[in-house]
Amino acid sequence: MSVLVLVETDDKGASEVSRETLTFARRLGEDVQALVVGDGPAGLVDQLGTYGVRSVLHADGDAFTSYAAAAWAAAVVAASADATVVMAAGTPRGNEVLAHVACRLGVTMAANVVEVDRSSGSLVVSRQVLGGAAMEEMRLEDAVAVLSVAGHACDPQPAEATTSPAVMPIEVEVADSDLRARVVRTEPGEPDESGSLKSAKVVVGAGRGAGSADGFKDLLELADLLDGALGVSRVVTSLGWRPHHEQVGQTGSRVSPDLYLACGISGAIQHWAGMSSSKTIVAINNDPDAPMVTKAHYAVIGDLHEVVPAVVEELRRRRPA
Amino acid sequence: MTNVLVCIKRVPDLGGEITLTPDGMSVDDTSLGHTVSPHEECAVELAISVAKDTDGTATVLSVGSPDSVEQLRNALAVGCTAAVLVEAEASSYGPADVAAAIAEVVRAHEAVGTTYDLVLLGNDASDTGDFQVGIRLSYLLDRPVVAGVSTLSVEGDRVTARGQSPDGGTEVFDVALPAVLTVMEGGIEPRYPSIPGRMKAKKVKIEQREPSLRPVGPGRLRLKLPPAQPSQVTVLGEGPEAAGALVDLIEELGVLR
Ligand SMILES: Cc1cc2nc3c(=O)[nH]c(=O)nc-3n(C[C@H](O)[C@H](O)[C@H](O)COP(=O)(O)OP(=O)(O)OC[C@H]3O[C@@H](n4cnc5c(N)ncnc54)[C@H](O)[C@@H]3O)c2cc1C
Ligand SMILES: Nc1ncnc2c1ncn2[C@@H]1O[C@H](COP(=O)(O)O)[C@@H](O)[C@H]1O
């Protein structure tokens, strides 16, 4: 009996949310196995060992040189022979592959889980629903439970005892039909600068309140004066106002600066998940009842397009060039 | 000529605080407005533009209560050409049930001569957020599926779709029709209904159907609301006059170099 975790990687190793999922998986008290599809970066197996992974299952071959969700799902199913739980991080890709897996295994799937409880004998999960406004308790009764773990629902924590996982190549039968929908081409996005966002001591957060793609001038200037970085809500990236690598939250970066200045952000739980560990949180919002305001340490109530320029001016005044 | 089917779900429009029904199984939406998710608004927009570009049709479908007619008419008002309501108690339907109900409509329409080359859904519904109806549907129909696409174009019997890759770039898919695609907002601007559009939508006869399958249900035990947290906030002031107090705080925090 084991828990199988589909691991997503970036050029440094297992992605942050995958490491969170490995941490989450250990809570179930069973052996944790990791599945890696395609080429993994150097050092990945050792890193998985620090997360207490017993064995690394590896699916490789022509079917995995470019992404096809159904082929990945075939790999997960092939790797799940002695798994009672199959998990992935609640990323677009994690949710997509697991939905395929659930169809192939003929089981239920629970997305964006934040808690698991086996005290009643069966597996009961709590997951985020209604845009994070509520939690749903759901019982997973199938022989294999398929679930995705909400991003930043826990911290990525290495295991107490490091393991030296055995790497086991697995045979995956990929049907032609599994490759009907496959990436034929990728195009690079804007260079990923989320590294400087994650390490910044000050993050100026900006949400829908910025108003438009042109509404970030003062916010960028403020970030610059504070020697910080700009972080944004998902609304801002969805609307194409700013690039995805600037997104903070469950499906973006997690930041913990000394100061997070949330400007025109309502404070939805998915955003909060990415910045709640900031030392000091200040909200600038024209709605005194916005969750970001009531949860922050400090707040200024008002229109950010008036407040932020005034703050910029005041900072300039006190710090003549 | 591409026939598109686009699936939308009536959901409560959540503003501030929400309350649950006494049994704790759903949101009390009696005093709330209703909407569909932004992903689905984009799916509707894509359905309409594909239908226009190819001289095809855009049929909108919802599985839910008779009130879902409101959302169907909104989709007709922006340019969908036909609408189907599968009457069901949405809260007793899980994602597999919804997929089965949609598949039933696809097959029934195919039996009378309408094949949907493209079925569009949202990537995830904004209430239950199951992230799977479209993928389940693709298995029931044995069609290829791509999740989370933001733009698409149909060329003959193939569709080219683009979505975001994990590293922030773009992934391009080229898939043979018929296919299922789930849409993520961000690639296009959904249009607003015009007054003539609304007038026309009122007159369209909506096809009403009953699902033949008994739902297995969503596996829900209960909903829980997060505990209300007492506000600890210190309000520094209002408007631009508070700038001084905020900069004082920034200096005190020692974050200025
Ligand atoms: C599965 C899932 C994953 C998600 N992941 C993320 C994520 O990673 N990151 C994320 O941020 N969100 C995420 N979301 C979305 C999240 O639920 C919210 O929708 C989003 O965070 C809201 O963004 P916002 O605060 O910018 O916009 P809104 O909620 O629209 O809030 C805008 C705020 O700005 C204020 N405002 C408006 N105008 C002004 C002005 N002129 N001056 C001052 N204040 C003003 C308003 O009072 C309001 O409080 C996710 C949702 C789901 C379902
Ligand atoms: N009751 C429904 N009626 C029509 N379409 C639905 C329904 N429920 C879900 N969908 C579609 O499936 C998508 C994904 O839903 P879900 O898998 O529940 O997150 C939604 O964005 C809709 O497009």
Question: Which features does this protein show?
Answer:
heterodimer; A: 321 residues; alpha/beta; Rossmann fold; 2 domains; nine-stranded mixed beta sheet; five-stranded parallel beta sheet; 10 helices; 17 strands; 28% helix; elongated; B: 257 residues; two-stranded antiparallel ribbon; 13 strands; binds flavin-adenine dinucleotide; binds adenosine monophosphate
Can you characterise this structure?
The complex is a heterodimer of chains A (321) and B (257). Chain A has 321 residues and is α/β, with parallel strands linked by helices. Chain A folds into two domains: 2-179, HUPs (Rossmann fold); 195-318, TPP-binding domain (Rossmann fold, 3-Layer(aba) Sandwich). Chain A contains ten helices and 17 strands. In chain A, helix 6 packs parallel to helix 10. Chain A starts with a strand and ends with a helix. The relative contact order of chain A is 0.11. The model of chain A has no long low-confidence stretch (mean pLDDT 95). In chain B, helix 2 packs across helix 5 (195-203) and helix 3 crosses helix 4. In chain B, helix 2 links the parallel strand 4 and strand 5. Chain B starts with a strand and ends with a helix. Chain B is built from six helices and 13 strands. Chain B has helices at 38-54, 69-78, 95-111, 133-141, 195-203, 243-253; strands at 3-7, 11-12, 34-35, 57-64, 82-87, 118-122, 145-155, 158-164, 170-176, 179-183, 207-209, 220-224, 234-238. At the A-B interface, helix 4, strand 7, strand 8, strand 9 and strand 12 of A face helix 4, strand 7, strand 9, strand 12 and strand 13 of B. Strand 9 (134-140) of chain A pairs antiparallel with strand 12 of chain B. The structure holds flavin-adenine dinucleotide and adenosine monophosphate. The site of flavin-adenine dinucleotide has 30 residues of chain A, from helix 7, helix 8 and helix 10. Residues 7-9, 37, 39-40, 62-64, 90, 95, 98, 121-122, 124-125, 128-134 of chain B line the site of adenosine monophosphate.
